[in-house]
């Protein structure tokens, strides 16, 4: 009964006036205690003088506490700032007492009134100790009664630096969850066996499965800022084998209001391991580029097109026109903008293959800038459907680009792919042909035609990440086409930010390639995803090698063999120096391809594609036989 009443009292914030009274009571007692210390705990001092001094001490303390406001803090949330306020108040009390003594010595207001300097010094030290102790004592009392002694979770913090200490403080201060930090882990040998806040620092070699089980560890929290992706991958690969959940602290810039919250510590996902840090665009040139402009985005319902649209709304545009044939996804995007109360965004259900429809839309909205993201991109599907690949990726792009040129659009930015480099499949070849077409148009047009080329994006439609996630959820197996297959990856926001940046810096005719970092082995990717899901390979989940799909490469390239790159002012964007094209011949060949392309002439269509793109050599495909034909011609 008494305990429940006490808990109820603790739940309430202690009134400020009560904190002020308690602080005054402590200050009075520490003043008396100062005399006892000074006179070796004997009553050999003049108590009448002490009684005369106490009102002055109370007045000085009251003034100090009111000026500093040390009594205003919520006691159960006492921290460093509150302790500093107490120290400042104690300094002010001592300063006021010294001031009163000196004034009295000069003016002799009260006969023989003085306070020894030793008493003031001792009083200051006692004030600091007891006022701070009282706050932390109440704080600990609150924790014991309200949170209890039962530990909810036992964790290890990987990183004994500033970030690790901040995580420790945050966990220790959290009242809703009783989380105990068992140890820090750090790579710095100099820190091993030392203690931080009473917690031992260990090396990673000390953390074994036996240690985890013996200490009943629930989580390992990785708290290292500015860590190299390769080292993070090593750490996760090492600790994900242990029977423990692995979590990670986000970058400091994403902390809420500059402070870390428990809910921000999340399970490690594959994006954290790939080292792709989204670029924050705060570029005045971009703001100027899109100021009061009408911007049209094709393929707006797709993963890239929709993210481009989301980023464009941050600029002071005139109107954004979003085009896609995928009705449901475009509707969802429209509702997103409605809910965000974004104005002047027009969503249009239309097919880029319909030239008449596109011409009407361009005349109606008169766009200044076009981002062309509409495309078919699934390699195996397009290998089976070359007719559709040419219709959308070539003819559709040809429609949009030609109409943009006729309407004197300022800039046309096409989203391409690394699969267009030395293509081994229909999809890649179709995108390379589209690149060639807009490059030809740039030579004889007022419109600046720009190509951006990058690899796979995490979480996009068709990405292996959602596929692996679903396969793991279903109990496996996780399917990988080849044990040595590698791919480049970047996040969708980063890819789209770079597309905007490249589009802004483009002068026309460039193929911009993005720094994709290091290529990742898909087998290792699958292995890490299994471990991060708390499962073991191959005990819980198997990985099945299915063999390369039609048209699939073991590794991707960002540049063709005849291309080199030159740097731009942006360290993650380069310009491919492509071989010059015979514009008239290329345009004629592409026109012939569009006429030739019918559902009944697939072989002729593919053969023509190989003639337009001589480096197009099919791989693991029924069209490999045509490579011999083109070589013989």
Keywords:
22 strands, 633 residues, alpha/beta, single chain, 22 helices, elongated, Rossmann fold
Task: Tell me about this structure.
With 633 residues, the protein is of the alpha/beta class. The chain has 3 domains: 2-147, no CATH class; 153-268, 3-Layer(aba) Sandwich (Rossmann fold); 284-457 and 489-514 and 557-622, Rossmann fold. The chain is 48% helix and 14% strand. The strands form 5 sheets. Strands 10-9-8-11-12-13-18-22-21 form a 9-stranded mixed sheet, sandwiched between helices. Strands 3-4-2-1-5-6-7 form a 7-stranded mixed sheet, with helices on one face. Strands 14-17 form a two-stranded parallel ribbon. A hairpin with a 2-residue loop joins strand 3 (195-196) and strand 4 (199-202). Helix 20 (583-596) packs antiparallel against helix 21. It is elongated, with a radius of gyration of 35 Å. The mean pLDDT is 85.
